[in-house]
Amino acid sequence: MHTMNLKIYLWRLLITFLLVHTITLNVFGSGSADTAAFIDEQRVLIKQFQKDSKIKGLAVALFDNERIIWSEGFGHSNPDKKQLIDTETIFSIQSMSKTFIATAIMKTVQDGLIDLDTPITKYLPQFSIHSCYEKNPENKITLRLMLGNTAGFTHEAPIGNNYDASFDSYEQHYISIYDTWLKFPVGKKYSYSNLGFDLAAQIIEKMSGMTFQNYMKRQIFGPLSMTSTTVDINTVLKSNNRTEGKVIGFKKLPIAIPMIGAGGVYTNVTDLVKFVQFHLNFGKVKDKPFIEKKYLYEMYTPIIIEDYALGIGITQEKTTYSFFHQGGGFGFGACMKWYPECKIGSVILTNGGCSPYGIVSKILNNYINRGHASRDTTLTQGFHPLKTFPRQLQRENKNVPNVLEIGMSTYREDWDKYIGTYRFVFKGGFEFMWYADVARFFGYKTPKINIYKRGNRIYLDEYDENKSLGEKELSEHITGLFFTNDGEALDFRSKIPTYRNIELER
Q1: Distance (Å, whole) CA 338 – CA 321
Q2: Measured between alpha carbons, how far is 465 from 334 in angstroms, rounded to an integer?
Q3: Rounded CA gap, 336 and 467, in Å?
């Protein structure tokens, strides 16, 4: 390189460096030493989190209801380290998608397309569901119960789930939910589930006359100026700045997410900030109401438990409250959290399996404790999600029938054929490294269940990476169909057995 060219190159490099740091400080609101020191401290925390979690790359943002305070990418988006993560890099946000579809549902309610408390059979006349507690439970299931995880659904669908990403169409995935069993009577308990949110996506399609992808683009992403956000996998695949999820032991992970409503959103931190700011401003976009506050208030109000409302988690803090949601799966980990009364929020997106809630909370607490944000109830107008929490309903729903008393629990000799160890089957785009395949063959660090007899009872113990998730007693409801004491189905009636709708192999 010539001397003159080298000087020009160095000048350009210096100017670029100064511009980047000037932008960071200006977005924060000042160029003070305290501001710069705060950002540097958070960078140290992020890098330590990245190291501890063994994550290849991530993007983070801190913001208030009007501006981005700090956003930055760390690490790489691919194994060969040729592409750096930046604030425009696309990630899968997994279950954080639940907050997006809940927001979309409130938009359809505002537009008069649907009602939260009408049985969903009005919108899906062919819908039905199995239950050992009650007849025709589908006539009791509503969107409010589905979005609040209180309809009684299990977590996974038979076609398209966290272990099997093979599916011909989203409609096929939706319809497979119709053949599942409820864990408990409708509306009586809380159990985190993907199924209600995917059925909500199907309802949006039926009532809007649009595909779910088009509805989200036109009615949510577009109005919020989220130009890089999508639930269309073809759009994701065309992106030149996207990262893929990574899990130790896997050579390849699926990109297309079958659970389009519960986990199908792809976005970057720049767009995700806009979404959370929309909620920080209680439904306003550019100072104009887009979704009325009263509908968001309904979304933020819990049903059965205090810490989950309609597609959004709630944390009671010392003097205020916060909203949040996490997402994890297919090699991604994500979290968004915000304090409505402090008008402050943070998001983090990662391309590794981890739980970022702790680091997001720490960044927010550091910012608040520095005195950069304080509690102000002017915008919220005194709204508190737990003030309207129906505690009487919570007390009434504690008396739920015991599924063990419904079926046969005393051991029978013909159950001997079920005794043994079964591992969960991964298929539909999951490829293991050779050493992981060997480990799975010997049953090491692989999700599995063990079915065994003790006394005159039959039990199931589930394992994740050799760690027991707890013993569960089984009862037989129909020949070959068992339920655990917490309502999960173990089905031996077909050639391929399933547990929680996940295929098993002996």
Answers
A1: 9
A2: 22
A3: 29
For 178-220, how does the pLDDT look when each residue is reduced to its tens digit (9 = 90+)? 999 999 999 999 999 999 999 999 999 999 999 999 999 999 9
The number of beta carbons lying within 10 Å of the beta carbon of residue 304 is 20
- The H or E element spanning position 312 is none
Residue 506 amino acid letter:
R
Helices and strands in the chain: count of H runs, count of E runs: 15, 20
Q: What digits encode the pLDDT tens for the residues 299-321?
A: 999 988 999 999 999 999 888 99
Per the structure block, which two tokens stand in for 40?
């540097």
Q: When comparing pLDDT for 17 and 265, which is higher?
A: 265
C-alpha to C-alpha distance for 357 and 368, rounded to whole angstroms: 17
Phi-psi region of 225 (alpha: psi -120 to 50; beta: other; left: phi over 0): left
Question: Which tokens in the block code for residue 256?
Answer: 């297309």
Torsion over CA of 139, 141, 144 and 149, rounded to 10 degrees? 180
Residue 98 CA from chain centroid, whole number? 6
| pLDDT tens-place string over residues 111-150 | 999 999 999 999 999 999 999 999 999 999 999 999 999 9
Predicted TM-score (pTM) of this structure: 0.90
3-class secondary structure for 381-402?
Answer: CCCCCCCCCCHHHHHHCCCCCC
